[in-house]
Structures are given as C-alpha cells and as structure tokens.
Amino acid sequence: MSLEPIRSLVKEDLASIDQFIISELASDIPMIKQIIEYVLTCGGKRIRPLVLLLSARCLNKQNHQPISLAAVIELIHTATLLHDDVVDSSTLRRGHKTANMVWGNNASVLVGDFLYSRAFKIVVGLNRNDILNVFAEATHYMTEGEIMQLVNCNNPDTTEAFYFDVIQRKTAKLFEIATHFGACTVSDNTNHIEALRQYGLHLGLAYQLIDDALDYSQSAEETGKNVGQDIAEGKATLPFIHAMRQSKGADLELLRDAIKTGSHKNLNDILGIIESTEAIKYTADAAKFHAQQAKTALSQVANSPYRQALEALSDFVVCRTY
Fold it and tell me: Which of 74, 86, 240, 280 is such that its CA lies 20 to 30 A from the CA of 61?
C-alpha cells in the first residue's frame, strides 16, 4: 500500500512545509546545516505533518492551511529522533547511518536542541495561547514518556499497561497534537476538534505498535533499522511482553536474560519464540484495534476526500512493512 495517493491531496502544502522548514532553520554554523540537511533528507514519511494538513482540510477545505504548525510537528519529531538515537546508541535509521554515528553524540544532542528551540519560537510567534499551552504540555508529556522508557530499560517484568502508557506519551501524543492543531486552527467546533484529536491518538498508538512488531518481523533492508534493536536497547515492547507471558522454562529464561543484559546473541532463538507464541499477530491485532478506533472517531466529521484519506492512512499504518 502506498502513501502517494494520500499525499497527493496536499502535495502543494507538503512542499510549502519543506520550504518553510528550510527558511526557518537557516544558520551560519556549518555543522547545524549539515546535520539538519542529512536528517531531513533521509527518507522520512512526513506522516505527522500529513495528518495535520488532512485534519485541517477535513473541516475547512478553503482556508489557509497551518503550514507553520505542520512544520513545527516535523521539527519536534526530528529533534526527538536525534535525541533518541543518542540515548539508544542507535547506528541505523531509515537505512542510513544515524547522525550520532556520523557527527558524534554531542553534535546530535545540540542540533536536536536547536530544532526544539526553533519549534518553540515558531509557536510563540503565532500569538495563540491555546496552541502554546497545548504544545508546551505535550512536549513535557512526551519527554516524560522517554524518561519512563529509559529508566525501565532491562526490566523483564515490564507490564503491558506500562508499555501502553509509554507509547501513548512518547509517540501517540505527537500524532494527537498534530490532528488537534490541524482542527483547531480552522474550526471552533469542539466536537470536530475532539474527534480529530482522538483519531490522532489512536493512529499514533497503532503506528508505534506496528513499529515494534516490525522490529522482530522484517529485515534491516525493509525497515531501515537493525533487526532486534529493541532487545539490544533492553526495551520490552509488546511482542516481547506477550512472548514472555506465553513462555515458560528455558524459553522464558532466555527471553528474560536477553532483556536484562541487552544482548541479542541468541537472536535466532528469540525470533523463533516470538513466532511460536504468535506475538507478532497479537501486536498487529492491537494495532488494528486502534486503527479502527481512529476510523470510528472520524464518524463525527463530514465525509470528504480528506476524511477518506485519513481513513486510508489508518489502513496504511497497520499494513506497512517499513
């Protein structure tokens, strides 16, 4: 399934976002320019700004689209990637070396900070206290999610409830504020705004669930990151949690030890256990549930090509292999 039919509906807006980002990130410091160009051109899907644009057009097809806020969403996402790759010691993203592998951890963290600061500057310049308050609270909430995940690394007793709390904060929240911003900048209908906010929340949960399933079910060539990366980082994601819950004896001890030590030296055995316990299907089913919840939320919004595109995006999220 391709994103292109969906993206084509807002093709000009997406191009405007790229131009806006380029103008806003102009800097005389060569390293900043090099890292930003590298990260922004490494094949990102731009799904978060895409859902913001489609949400806005769902409610007001003619009004000026919130290009600046869509750019802010992409800047925050890119900043979190830079920081996450340092925290996780990642070496591969989207099939390319991570920025921290090319320029080092210090440079990656500082350029991530630069992106955060530019994003806040843009939001402040809008003179919308309601948007600024939501944005500030959301970035705080997202950071809490990342910290929760960090302090829980190498914990084989991670619960499913804890896992969902983390992914709602660190991933789904950015999708949620994207659709919220898209809606509230073109409409004051609280029912419509809430419907699109709920859509973003559930779409974000589905997106992360599939990401975590792909970590065990696809090759590095397909996903653009190392297979079993979550194990190496000591992260017990839903496929692993389910596999542990369904395992006993030597298999359970193998899984627990892998998370405790952050080692995937027995990766083939681990993948076999993941498969035998149907952990990928369990995770994919959870993603499908949230994708359907996202579609259900859209029932509050009038039918249009843009609403249909958001529905199609829900399907894409759960069917993707990268």
Answer: 74
